[in-house]
Amino acid sequence: MPNSAQHYELIIIGGGSAGYAAARTAANDFGLTTAVIDGADPLGGLCILRGCMPSKALIESSNRCRDLRDAAEFGLLGADAQVDLPAIIQRKRRLIEDFSSYRQEQLENGKFDLIRGTASFVDEHSLQVRLNQSQETLTITADAICIATGSHIDVIQLPGLEKNGFLTSDDILDAQSLPDHIAVLGGGAIALEMACYLEGIGKKVTVIQRSGQLLRGCDADVAQALEAGMASHGIEVFTGTGLRKVESRDGQKVVHFEQAGQPKEVICDDILYALGRAPNTQSLNLDAIKLEMRARHIATDSSMATSIPHIYAAGDVTGPHEIVHIAIEQGEILAQNAAILLGKCDKKPRHIDYRLKLYGIFSTPQVAWVGLTSDEAIQQGIDFSCASYPFNDHGKSMIMNEMHGFVKLMQNNKTGELIGAVVVGPEAVDLIHELVVAMYFRATAKDLASIPHYHPTLSEIWTYPAEELAEL
Questions:
Q1: 251 and 209, same structural domain?
Q2: Residue 414 sits in a domain of what CATH number?
Q3: Which of 68, 248, 310, 312 could bond 79 through an S-S bridge, CB–CB 3.0 to 4.6 Å?
Q4: For the chain, how many structural domains are there in total?
């Protein structure tokens, strides 16, 4: 509940990953009187409740199922992969309850106030909060405010979609029964992770992506390798499409679209809608404070300050990269900068740096990259070179029978510094971290090539492109 004065040095709207990081840092590190406003039930935020953690729990079960199906390759007979979907969901629920209860304990530990309700702006320093239990409202004020309200599934206007119904990732994450054939609308991280989960538990999956490739924004060779790897597991992919309508036919659903100017349709049992998310700003009454927006996101500078210097934003509500570890860093940065603004910290201001921006997609095969893509380097006019090496010529991946994909390194030709790296293949999201560390210390390809790597391991694959670049 709010303190007796109903005034704080920092109020944070939202108790997810970004909001909790901001509150913890502000209260613990700088001693700011802090409140978090969150009316969600349960607490925890998108990552814990409906995103990273539950999806990875399901994907882990799916991957084990796929391993059992492939057991004969390893001389193992009689490995009958029978999917018990309710048991998979129950395991996920146990894990998420554990994660969520721990976050609730962190939010309720007394180091800052937790106000259970929904906040909206009255003016630049005042918030009206509608309390959950009583539905009463109270007004509280703050010297600084952080908006960390996250995002929600954004449904486009597609004729027939609402009428005929669809699933979202929220539905899939708790579904104890699923139909045989699901069409996935979208080709981003959520769409592809859910598509691979569904295929792993034995469902027929068709992916329909509007952009010309999967994972819009990544290099074309990455998207092509991912699509080929998914196709090897029986997932059908259509890219460069224009969605037209959805209808029902003989008890099934039909997605109509165009590709290369030709009309096409996919007949399926149900549709998974995964065409993106939008910031949660609708209940904030932002008109009262006239914040600058970047399309639908709240615009911030590198200090995480908005166009009003004492109001900050972090996480999905601001972007530009809607990823948990970045949201946490944004929250920590704004907390320190708010403390500086309020005269409670004599450190230098902190600024977000996306040089080491890191992505990971738990698809099959996995995809991960750090730093610049080739397209971004070209756009920035950097003189660079690339070198790659395939998993189908790498000893450990051949032993594992995981031979789809490749690794790729990029170096700045003027300095030799590594500026980007990508993996498509086995354990990509773990393998990329070696390059995150190398790039953090601004290592060159020659530096990386000289570091010992144990044999046989997946990670030694990095030495091959590193050696090639080091010889340039």
A1: yes
A2: 3.30.390.30
A3: 68
A4: 3
Residue 60 has what pLDDT? 97
pLDDT in tens, 221-230: 999 999 999 9
Beta bridge partners of 451: none
pLDDT of the residue at 77:
86
Helix 189-200 crosses helix 52-69 at what angle (to 10 degrees)? 40
- HSE-CB for 350 with a 13 A CA cutoff: 17
- Could you say which residues of the chain have pLDDT below 50? 4
Dihedrals φ, ψ of 308, to 5°?
-105, 110
**Alpha carbon distance 325, 331 (integer Å):** 10
pLDDT at 4: 46
Nearest to 126 by CA among 111, 113, 137: 137
- Please give the backbone phi and psi of residue 292, each rounded to the nearest 5 degrees, phi first: -75, 135
The one-letter amino acid code at 9 reads E
Asked if 417 and 433 count as a contact pair (C-beta separation under 8 A), the reply is no
**What is the CATH number for 255?**
3.50.50.60
Question: Residue 6 burial by CB count (10 A; 0-12/13-18/19+): exposed, middle or buried?
Answer: middle
- What's the pTM? 0.94
How many Å apart are CA 360 and CA 339, to the nearest integer? Answer: 32
Nearest to 425 by CA among 360, 358, 370: 360
pLDDT, position 1: 53
Rounded Cα distance, 366 and 353, in Å: 25
Instruction: Give the E-state strand segments of 311-405 in sequence order.
Output: 311-313, 358-361, 366-371, 384-390
How far apart are the C-alpha atoms of 102 and 94, rounded to whole Å? 13
CB 49 within 8 A of CB 42: yes
Residues 267 and 310 in one domain: no
Question: Quick one: pLDDT at residue 319?
Answer: 85
Chain centre distance of CA 9: 31
